[in-house]
Here is the input.
Amino acid sequence: MADFRVSDIDQQIIDKVIEVGNSTTAFTRHYEDNEHEFPPEQLEGEMGFDQVLPLFFKRKPDDTPMMTFQMLLSIARGSTNGVVRGLGLAMPTGRANGLGNAALASAGTKEQVSKWGNLFLAMSITEPGAGSDTKAIQTTARLEGEEWVIDGDKIFVTDGVRCDGAVVWATIDKSAGRAGIKSFLVEKGTPGFDLVRKEKKLGIRSSDTAAYSFRNCRIPRENLLGGDETVPVGGGSASYRGVMKTFNMTRPAVASGGVAKARGALDFATSALAAEGLEVDWTRSHAQRSATEQKLIEMEADTEAATLSVLHAAWLADVGLPNNMESSICKAKGGEVCRTIPQGAMELLGGMSISHDHLVEKYLRDGRISDIYEGTGQIQRLIIARGILGYSSEELT
Ligand SMILES: Cc1cc2nc3c(=O)[nH]c(=O)nc-3n(C[C@H](O)[C@H](O)[C@H](O)COP(=O)(O)OP(=O)(O)OC[C@H]3O[C@@H](n4cnc5c(N)ncnc54)[C@H](O)[C@@H]3O)c2cc1C
Here is the structure.
């Protein structure tokens, strides 16, 4: 039976994270307006990590299960001011919590995890011609002596500017489809690995997004994650499957970011309307409620449903049960409410909602990406359909 109760110390941490979040809105606004202006470390240093850290040391093993707790923290932090680096600010893992770190943890050997575990790693899969269809990647890796030589172009790398390196997808045999795809760890500073540009974006401007090029980029042979150089006949490689599995962990996290924006927009709308005397009167029947009350109730129900779907996917991971379909369900749901709830809040609030003085417009902009990266809403629905119908990715595309 799923259990989402939060221990006392974890509630204190969540409350502190909200307090820090609320006190740093002006800073994050400034950072967003001046995208890429500050050295990235300054963002974390300025934003109260030190206040939260001591509380973490009071946690005991039987407190709230880790992934469930991380999702609660992410929702709490993201709903205060929409800063995208919420989780990183609140977790004692510090900087080493990029998407590439999740891939390293799930697909790397013990030696690789201990060698690179402290680096801050981005995840670089997407290419100009390969987004949703990841098996279409064109970046190649060929073995020359004791080195892999990487060639290709990558786009949309989250944290690609501030990271220490990236887990990069490349094929070692184009004719083998997904079976030929492997992931490689490429450290910044390796000759032939270049940062091409930083993207300017609609939202999540506190998170940098980069494009990379790899030209005759040579890395040691042991930088192949998992170390398996074989190309299995007739199917995906263990390496490919291993990295795909990391999405079961990262999709709930992305969904929690979307839920956070919905929660932030809804809470703001609820209190702004209450200040004008417009509150849901729970004592009245459905037929007697105003359209505004009805809308607030529907938004609350949708946001709560999305929250519970995130916690469910996280809890399954915490107790070691498969969560492939549930992580897609919560990603689809989180990607939906991050669009519909800020939009609904804007409909209720009118003109004030687009003012820079409030965060609703930022929630709308920041939330939009939650339905795109880590697999779009359409792709999540495809995965859910496969799960329900029992089809493979070859049978239902
Ligand atoms: C800010 C940002 C950060 C990102 N961070 C990373 C990162 O760190 N690492 C990384 O590797 N990538 C990253 N991405 C890339 C992201 O994962 C892709 O943009 C996403 O997977 C969609 O790919 P695409 O943009 O090529 O769109 P496409 O795949 O071209 O899709 C276009 C549209 O078609 C729909 N569609 C595609 N295929 C199907 C189908 N089979 N059925 C139904 N509909 C379909 C999609 O849902 C979408 O609406 C990031 C993107 C952005 C914008």
Remarks:
- The mean pLDDT is 88.
